[in-house]
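wait is this the right file?? whatever heres the structure
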């Protein structure tokens, strides 16, 4: 876990530097940033939740962080309810990382129907050329995670690499039916909060050009995993106007999402025995798409 602890300390210093640069310092010297999530990047709560800081694992992710800030400002200008970056020049480079600061969103978890409404609106927008959105890379960071996640056995790495190669070979032949639109990239219910003023969409770092099916598949997968009910999924499909599970490409997209979920969680090995057991279970299950999944959400 030394690598995670080292990044956490570095990220804390980077947040302090960014907060000072943007005029949003911590509440006091005794109440610094609070780590609320560690995964692809570190996420901190500042000033009692009034500000959220997101710290990339390296400065190499500056372009992605910059695009996320610009995309959020564009979407807000279009009237889409999204989390808003603080004013000022962002991202801030500090401690070999890229840091962005955002207005905190105070809210509660909502239902899949609300996510469907947001996605329907998002997929209908035309971004300005200067936003320069990339094309979807469904395997973005997967190989990197497999290579760098601590504590995986050689057999587990081999199994993940084999799964990655097989899915990547099949992906180009799978043709979406909804066209190519601007998509969120990681559209799950965990990235939407209900506030007194309406729902808010956040975590926009994956925004890109791609098939809407890629955004819709996560809710269907969560239903398959038992994380959403049948009724919730039916409401989602009704609100969006399309059931991605009726599309022939759904099984492949689902397997890619499972691989991504597994390699993301693999970065958290060592945080608890429960997470370690979940990682092992998921890697084992990937070998057989038909095997019942008894996965826990993280």
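ok assuming it is, sequence goes like this
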């Amino acid at each position: 876990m030394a690598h995670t602890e080292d990044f956490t300390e570095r990220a804390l210093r980077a947040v302090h530097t960014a907060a000072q640069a943007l005029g949003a310092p911590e509440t006091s010297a005794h109440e610094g940033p609070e780590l609320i999530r560690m995964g692809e990047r570190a996420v901190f709560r500042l000033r009692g939740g009034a500000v959220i800081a997101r710290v990339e694992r390296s400065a190499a992710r500056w372009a992605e962080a910059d695009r996320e800030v610009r995309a959020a400002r564009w979407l807000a200008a279009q009237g889409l309810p999204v989390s808003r970056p603080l004013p000022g020049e962002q991202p801030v480079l500090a401690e070999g990382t890229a840091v962005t600061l955002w207005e905190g969103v105070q809210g509660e978890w909502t239902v899949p129907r609300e996510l469907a409404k947001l996605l329907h609106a998002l997929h209908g927008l035309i971004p300005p050329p200067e936003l320069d959105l990339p094309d979807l890379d469904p395997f973005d960071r997967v190989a990197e995670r497999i290579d760098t996640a601590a504590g995986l056995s050689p057999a587990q790495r081999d199994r993940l690499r084999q799964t990655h190669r097989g899915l990547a070979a099949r992906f180009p032949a799978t043709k979406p039916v909804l066209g190519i639109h601007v998509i969120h990239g990681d559209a799950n219910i965990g990235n939407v909060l209900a506030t007194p003023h309406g729902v808010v969409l956040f975590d926009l770092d994956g925004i890109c050009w791609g098939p809407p099916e890629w955004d819709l598949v996560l809710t269907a997968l969560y239903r398959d995993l038992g994380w959403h009910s049948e009724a919730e999924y039916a409401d989602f499909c009704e609100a969006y106007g399309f059931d991605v599970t009726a599309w022939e490409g759904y099984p492949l997209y689902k397997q890619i999402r499972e691989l991504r979920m597994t390699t993301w969680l693999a970065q958290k090995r060592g945080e608890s025995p429960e997470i370690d057991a979940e990682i092992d279970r998921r890697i084992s299950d990937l070998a057989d798409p038909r095997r019942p999944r008894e996965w826990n959400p993280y």
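The chain has a mean pLDDT of 93. so i think its the right one actually
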